[in-house]
Amino acid sequence: MTRDHPICAVLDACVLYPAALRDVLLSATDESLFRPVWSDEILAETDRALARSPRALTSEQRARLFNAVRRTFPDATVRIASWPGPVPRLPDPHDEHVVRCALAADARLIVTMNLRDFPDPHLHPSGLAAVHPDRFLCTLAAWEPATLDRLVTEAALRMTHPPRSRDDFLDALERTVPRFAALMRGDLGEG
Predict the structure, then answer these.
(1) What pLDDT is attached to residue 41?
(2) From CA 131, how far away is CA 125, in angstroms rounded?
(3) 3 state SS of 39
(4) Dihedral sign, CA of 115, 62, 159, 6?
(5) Are 18 and 175 spatial neighbours (Cβ–Cβ below 8 Å)?
(6) DSSP labels for 172-183?
């Protein structure tokens, strides 16, 4: 990844599911730090996960969320049927739609917490790499530390149900991106 040419990255369902992580990642796109892509299949998988969660959103809340995502990022949804070529075999064939999305979008990165499901030896021949959102956000923060710090503060302020302080928001982020949360708290040195 280089700061001068924002990379195109597939956001897997597992990184779109946690509200705090989703908010920071999507806010980073407003700053042109990267260009997100996903498929209808990825959004449907996210929707199913949100419907099953312990604090499940109602179908109306989920519809509003995904309508807002589609409206805000009109170019992010990729038709995976547009990729006619072969797709690398993965340990779980149910994840191959994510790779198809990356190939159709000419993305080089798949941002996912499920790195085991996207092994490097399977992805590299296609020019793809999987990266954990913790590493991805730490890289973005290395490029634009003040911007990411501001995005975290703004995201915390948007959380109203229930309201969250910046520390509460960082606690929520810590569950999925602990190094990034520590970095935003000032607990890690740069780099």
Answers:
(1) 96
(2) 16
(3) strand
(4) positive
(5) yes
(6) HHHTT-HHHHHH
